[in-house]
Design a protein that fits this description.
The protein is α+β, with helices and mostly antiparallel strands. The protein has a single domain, classed as Nuclear Transport Factor 2, Chain: A (Roll). It has helices at 5-20, 35-54, 58-62, 82-93, 164-168, and strands at residues 65-71, 79-80, 98-108, 114-126, 132-145, 151-160. It has a six-stranded mixed β-sheet with strand order 2-1-6-5-4-3, with helices on one face. Strand 3 (98-108) and strand 4 (114-126) form a beta hairpin. The termini are far apart.
Length: 169
Amino acid sequence: MTTKTLPRLLLAALLTVTACAQPAPPPPAEAPDTRAADAAAITAASVAWLEAAKAKDAEKFLTFYGEGAVIMMEDAPDATGPAIREAITGLMADPNFSLSFTTNTVEVARSGDLAYERGDYALTMTGPDKKPATETGHDVVIWKKNAQGEWKVAVDAPISDPPPAAAAR
């Protein structure tokens, strides 16, 4: 090996090592935090959902449920798929039907695709004595963002308050 060749080989080796030792690419940027905007969107959807209930507009009311949604009511089997339509249209067909609810809390996951809402409700229906009967309670609604970016109800779980006589004990 000649004295001219050695520096060239060392330079080539140095360039090769330097080229292979590139720094790792930076980690992907964290997605923006949209929780406040998502909570506002869910609150607005809840208000529109309530308006559909007040208007006894079952078709509009049903649009708030997402694919695969479930309604979990006390003393009744869970309603999914077509059973949700049957339950809602049946409730709203009652001449004394009235539903009101308020949103107390909305918590959105950092991922921005799942949230829950807690609130209170009052539901009036025709009772066994043919008079209006009102049930009050609390609810938990789980919202899920669909592929179109819309918030839809995944789980609707109203929990009725104890009857007045039981509450007084």
